[in-house]
Amino acid sequence: MMMENRIKETTENYHLTAREKEILFYWVKDFDHRQIALLLGISRNTVKVHIAKINLKLQVNSKASLILKVLNV
Asked: Among residues 51, 44, 57, which one has the least CA distance to residue 19?
């Protein structure tokens, strides 16, 4: 539950879209691009593009940095 609250706060603080929020949720729960794409009915490339946009908005350059930022919101 804590992670979901942190993701919600991150979404609000960094103005993520609804789709970016969905992808962030699965990404921090360690789903890979393929799994996220299948769950959301989108291509792997689209997942990669959304992750790149999330990283840009949160000003991080790695998954580890992203997770740390989400946890420390």
From this structure: 51
- Are 25 and 4 in contact by the 8 Å Cβ rule? The answer is yes
Nearest CA to 7 among 29, 26, 25? Answer: 25
Give the pTM. Answer: 0.91
Q: How far apart are CA 1 and CA 5, in angstroms?
A: 6
Reported as a single tens digit per residue, the pLDDT across 20-59 is 999 999 999 999 999 999 999 999 999 999 999 999 999 9
Helix (H) or strand (E) holding 55: helix 44-58
Q: How far apart are CA 59 and CA 14, in angstroms?
A: 10
3-class secondary-structure state, position 60: coil
In a 3-state reduction of DSSP, which class is residue 14?
Answer: coil
